Amino acid sequence: ARLAKVFPSKYLVTTLTCLLGSLQCFVVGISLGHSRAEWRIKWDLQLLTVVYSGVFNTGVTYVIICWVISRRGPMYPSMFSPLLLIITTAMDSLLLGTSIYLGSVLGTMLIIGGLYAFLWGKGKELQLTAAAAAVAQKQTVARRRRGS
């Protein structure tokens, strides 16, 4: 949120963040993989996976997070992060056929309950803030009328 106030171009920030992350991964990759064969680019599913992951999982996600922060504040994206655990558990079960245990179901219910409680509370807070702003505006208008 602070970065968005100082540097308002959210798409450039996203690009710079992705480039710096890529540079860091490159440095770690060079230090771990010394063979040239490991660095050869092949047109296969592995390359498609890397491109998809880089474009959608990182780039688009950062843009959406920046947009949400500018619209609703920095708390909203962090509240929706637990949903990733739920989606991962469901996809793991559907695609890989793993079992879902009672603990996973109870954890999912707690996450969803906490998320909806937060959203309900945030909605009430926004209503109270809007009502207080309306009252303050009416008082300002009334003071101006009395003074003129």
UniProtKB/TrEMBL annotation:
<keyword id="KW-0472">Membrane</keyword>
<dbReference type="GO" id="GO:0016020">
    <property type="term" value="C:membrane"/>
</dbReference>
<keyword id="KW-1133">Transmembrane helix</keyword>
<keyword id="KW-0812">Transmembrane</keyword>
<protein>
    <recommendedName>
        <fullName>WAT1-related protein</fullName>
    </recommendedName>
</protein>
<dbReference type="GO" id="GO:0022857">
    <property type="term" value="F:transmembrane transporter activity"/>
</dbReference>
<feature type="transmembrane region" description="Helical">
    <location>
        <begin position="12"/>
        <end position="33"/>
    </location>
</feature>
<dbReference type="InterPro" id="IPR000620">
    <property type="entry name" value="EamA_dom"/>
</dbReference>
<feature type="domain" description="EamA">
    <location>
        <begin position="11"/>
        <end position="118"/>
    </location>
</feature>
<feature type="transmembrane region" description="Helical">
    <location>
        <begin position="45"/>
        <end position="69"/>
    </location>
</feature>
<feature type="transmembrane region" description="Helical">
    <location>
        <begin position="100"/>
        <end position="119"/>
    </location>
</feature>
<dbReference type="Pfam" id="PF00892">
    <property type="entry name" value="EamA"/>
</dbReference>
<dbReference type="InterPro" id="IPR037185">
    <property type="entry name" value="EmrE-like"/>
</dbReference>
<comment type="similarity">
    <text>Belongs to the drug/metabolite transporter (DMT) superfamily. Plant drug/metabolite exporter (P-DME) (TC 2.A.7.4) family.</text>
</comment>
<dbReference type="InterPro" id="IPR030184">
    <property type="entry name" value="WAT1-related"/>
</dbReference>
